[in-house]
Amino acid sequence: MFNSMKIRYFLLSGFVFFIILFLGYFFILGRPQEDDSLFDIIFSYGLLGIFPFIWFSFHFKKQKYKVSSVLHIKGIHKQLPTILILICLLIAFSLGAYRLTNYMLSFIFPDYVAEMLSEDVPMPSNNFQYILLGINICLIGPIAEEFIFRGLLLKRLAKKTNIIASAIITNLIFGLFHSDIIAASMFGFILTLLFLKTDNLLVPIISHILNNTILMVLSIYLPDSPEFTNIMTIADLHNKMAPNLTLLIVSTIMLVIYIKRNTKVLARKNKVKGIRSADLN
Question: Which of 2, 71, 142, 238 could be disulfide-bonded to 155 (CB atoms 3.0-4.6 Å)?
Answer without folding.
Answer: 2
